[in-house]
Design a protein that fits this description.
Elements: E1 4-9, H1 17-31, E2 35-40, H2 54-58, H3 67-75, E3 79-87, E4 90-91, H4 93-101, E5 114-121, H5 130-140, E6 147-155, H6 167-177
Parallel strand pairs: 1-2, 1-3, 3-5, 5-6
Antiparallel strand pairs: 3-4
Helix pairs in contact: 1-6
């Protein structure tokens, strides 16, 4: 049965390496008959959370920007895929801001149960992604029945295009294909 897959590409570089992983994951998921949408945050207006907690009561954010549309897409997806560059051993600020702003989903019966992470780091050591995984697991823990199903580690890539011809692209494609 086809799944609705939402990929949230958080890189500020539209042609960045983590966005390239997102495209390969999307290709694999589409290849298996799934419905796939990539949301690129680089062209969205997303403000910081103000901590007002109005969303707990209203089930939507009161800040007028692009977040409520993205959160609705998240709520109605079977699979959420986060794609991020790694900055200082953690997720990008754009990803963290989107996670914070997804607070209206807390406590709801969301459709998504599977989460994947596609992360790229300049460093070659696999542990360079660990902080990002820890942060994402914190968000996942706040949603009942949701699991981190897979991680793709794009290591040793910094310059735009550095990921081309690396085996990790095939890994992202195969992970998408097998969701």
């Amino acid at each position: 049965m086809a799944k609705n897959v939402l990929i949230i590409a958080t890189s500020p570089r539209r042609n960045g390496n983590s966005n390239r992983l997102a495209k390969e994951f999307a290709k694999g998921a589409k290849n298996s008959g799934n419905n796939v949408e990539i949301v690129y945050l680089d062209d969205k207006k997303i403000n910081f959370c103000k901590g007002c907690m109005a969303c707990a009561k209203l089930k939507k954010c009161v800040i007028k920007d692009d977040v409520n549309i993205i959160v609705e897409k998240m709520q109605n997806s079977d699979v959420i895929v986060w794609a991020t560059p790694v900055y200082y051993y953690n997720m990008s600020g754009q990803m963290k801001t989107m996670i914070d702003r997804s607070n209206p989903l807390y406590g709801l019966s969301n459709k998504f149960k599977e989460v994947y992470l596609l992360a790229c780091a300049a460093e070659n050591h696999p542990s360079a992604i660990d902080g990002t995984i820890t942060g994402l697991k914190g968000w996942i823990a706040c949603h009942s029945g949701v699991e981190l199903k897979g991680v793709v580690r794009g290591l040793g890539v910094y310059e735009v295009g550095a990921i081309e011809n690396k085996p990790v692209l095939k890994e992202a494609f195969e992970m998408g294909k097998n969701i």
